[in-house]
Amino acid sequence: MNKWAELLLGLIFVIAAIWVAWYSAIWWGEFWNFKHAAWEFLKGGVFWFIVMIGVLFILLGISDMKG
User: Fold this and answer.
1) pTM of this prediction?
2) Backbone Cα Rg of the chain
């Protein structure tokens, strides 16, 4: 696929996702509130990212102690 087509398609996907998340609570009520779901997912993702960075540092420390 062309690099410009990939860039344009990615931009369209990002803009569409933001648009749906922003207007989901307004048009479809609280049942389809994608903005809240995306925020909760992001908070969970940040937590697990920090945990995995900690595990990585522990494994690197153990690896350095062996060598």
Assistant:
1) 0.54
2) 19
